[in-house]
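Can't paste images in this forum, so I'm doing it all in text. The chain is below; anyone willing to post the predicted structure tokens underneath?
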Amino acid sequence: MITVIVPIYNNATFLPSLIQQFYQQTTKDFEVVFVDDGSTDNPRAAIQQIDRHELTYQYIYQHNQGVGSARNTGMNHARGRYLMFVDPDDQIMSNFVAEGLKTIQGFDLGIMAFDLINANGNQLISHYQWKSIDYTYADFLKNFSNLYNSELLFSVFNKVYDASILKKNRLKFSKLRMGEDFLFNMQYFDLIDSISLTDVVTYRYMIYGEGTATTSFHGDEFDCSYSNQQYLIDFLNRHHVYDEKLVSLHWSLILAYRFAGVRKLKKIGSSDYQFARSQFLEILSIFKKEKLVKVPLLPPERMVKYLVMITKLNRMFI
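Text version of the structure:
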């Protein structure tokens, strides 16, 4: 019934644990498609240890093309009626597949609750949950802003997708280096009629501290975020649910992510710091010229942080 797609890139050390979590699932009516995106740490060794009596799986190798491409490859080989996604460095609970199957029955999309965990101390950081409820598309749109701000809509790991909808509409992950999850979901939201949410937690998103993902700099971060935000605005306008408060808040968050990125580069003495700082100041001019944020609409704490970022006070931090 379900295909679970696992993109792999140089995280083979997590696979034995994840495989055990697949063994422990309360239903066996699923397959796993492991897509090796050109890893150099030999994930095949762990996958070859899988007991085929315990787990139905496929292993596919491709030259490194990025996580979006790996997921697309998995989708091309999927045999399940529904699709789910797991990142190998996260954790799934024993009810992950069964609850996913239960949630999407009779609907076009299933959305489940999840936890954000500090991997170093195995401590709960945040809990993302919404009451169990079934939505018609009209109701989904009415509640879109609240759902969006609850952070249930961004990621793919807490969702179950109808494979027939994806195939019929040829929906794939984009080539965006970051934010491809968000864009994939927003495009899928345009294709469906019904959504089911459950408050049952099935997934643990693991935060491993300041690793390469949080300190690396590529220079296209803002371009990716800007593109996604424009898609969101277009979606809201097309469905007549435009929310200036929502849009302003998330423009301010986009700037905050870039601000935090520059601060981290400064802290670690990165050679990218000066360029990233210069780029941030250019981004500021875009925010001011296009009047992207309506400051009075921001929550008080976010308003203060935004004013620090856009004034000379920012020199104290970057």
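The chain is about 45% helix and 20% strand. The beta strands are 2-8, 30-37, 56-62, 82-85, 91-92, 109-118, 123-128, 133-136, 159-162, 194-207.
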